[in-house]
């Protein structure tokens, strides 16, 4: 929605190609919605959907994409954006280019927050590394087909690994700054965990962190935790169940558990009311991979407590938070935050303003549209890695 607002404010028309079951919200306004797609990236993980999926899901996606573009009557000056691409999208791209007069069609922009290890839609018979290695041979690349990643780290990784340009396209702020009232200055400092209860997001560390701060900061009313613990798509694994049980033993004034899914307004209300967001994500999975929650947190002016050497930690640009290494470091960081909350809030506010200036919705749209300008096209080897990796390493990938 924010990307749409950015496009509209720049004078562009916008149409959404959506899932057939998409329900258009009232606040969407005068945006054309065209129901096209019959599957989602998560259907492979849902038992009720998995049985009905065709073996060639990418072929169906390709057909539906072609039909949607044809029905929308978009031309060569228009742009089609996949803002959260997954494996089936990438598998469908060679067929899309081969089966259309791509030079006279719209520019296609494909962006992902995922690395290949975590990307939804992987199948045993079609290794994603092979799929990505083949993308560089598509004639339309950097002419009518453009690849993007949500983080600079992920963009540089794909570019260096697979030999074609992948550019950074940071997420814009999800809501206007006015939507985020400052957290209450009186009362305990609030540390918030948002999203599904998942091991890779550090959920298993929360009981230990809460226990070690309880006597010094819980009983004294200096600190409290608000923890969303809704299940992920596959449900609760035993270790997560045990962690939730341990957290439930603390007084509700110290640890409040959110066990039901949050609506959008409820979600952002919790974010607005907190002081810090816990992003203790696994370094292996989140070193280069994007995080919508992290972007939402920084844009809301909240302190980030993020695992060191992750994308989330890279958003701590003005001292609005701490990059931490483990439980000991996190306990110390929370104690410091509780000691000087005003100082950290001020830094987080500066951090939010910096991100909003650099990565607003209009900037997102301008990056997409500007990249299709022939005068801005460059040979392979983008600025995101130039000067850091020798061109010799790429051999025939170098075309400059």
UniProtKB/TrEMBL annotation:
SUPFAM superfamilies in alphabetical order: UDP-Glycosyltransferase/glycogen phosphorylase (SSF53756)
Gene3D superfamilies registered for this protein in UniProt: Glycogen Phosphorylase B
Protein name per its UniProtKB record: Glycosyltransferase
């Amino acid at each position: 929605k924010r990307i749409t607002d950015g496009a509209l404010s720049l004078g562009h028309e916008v149409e959404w190609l959506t899932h057939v079951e998409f329900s258009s919200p009232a606040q969407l306004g005068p945006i054309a919605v065209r129901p096209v797609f019959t599957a989602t990236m998560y259907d492979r993980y849902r038992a009720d959907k998995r049985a009905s999926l065709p073996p060639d899901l990418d072929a169906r996606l390709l057909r539906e994409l072609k039909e949607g573009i044809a029905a929308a009557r978009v031309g060569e000056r228009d742009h089609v954006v996949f803002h959260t691409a997954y494996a089936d999208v990438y598998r469908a791209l060679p067929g899309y280019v081969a089966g259309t007069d791509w030079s006279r069609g719209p520019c296609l922009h494909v962006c992902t927050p995922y690395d290949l290890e975590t990307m939804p839609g992987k199948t045993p018979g079609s290794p994603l590394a092979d799929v990505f290695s083949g993308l560089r041979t598509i004639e339309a690349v950097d002419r009518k087909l453009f690849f993007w990643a949500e983080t600079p780290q992920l963009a540089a990784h794909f570019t260096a690994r697979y030999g074609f340009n992948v550019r950074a396209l940071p997420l814009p702020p999800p809501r206007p700054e006015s939507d985020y009232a400052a957290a209450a200055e009186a009362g305990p400092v609030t540390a918030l965990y948002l999203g599904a209860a998942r091991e890779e997001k550090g959920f298993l560390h929360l009981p230990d962190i809460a226990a070690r701060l309880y006597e010094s900061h819980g009983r004294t009313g200096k600190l409290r935790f608000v923890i969303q613990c809704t299940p992920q798509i596959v449900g609760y694994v035993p270790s997560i169940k045990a962690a939730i049980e341990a957290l439930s033993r603390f007084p509700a004034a110290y640890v409040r558990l959110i066990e039901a899914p949050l609506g959008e307004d409820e979600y952002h209300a919790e974010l607005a009311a907190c002081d810090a967001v816990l992003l203790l994500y696994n370094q292996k999975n989140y070193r280069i991979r994007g995080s919508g929650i992290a972007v939402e947190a920084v844009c809301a002016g909240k302190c980030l407590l993020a695992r060191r050497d992750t994308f989330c930690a890279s958003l701590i640009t003005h001292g609005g938070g701490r990059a931490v290494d483990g439980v000991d470091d996190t306990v110390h960081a929370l104690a410091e935050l509780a000691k000087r909350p005003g100082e950290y809030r001020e830094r987080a506010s500066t951090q939010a303003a910096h991100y909003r200036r650099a990565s607003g919705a209009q900037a997102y749209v301008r990056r997409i549209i500007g990249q299709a300008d022939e005068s801005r096209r460059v040979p392979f080897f983008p600025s995101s890695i130039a000067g850091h990796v020798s061109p010799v390493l790429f051999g025939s990938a170098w075309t400059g």
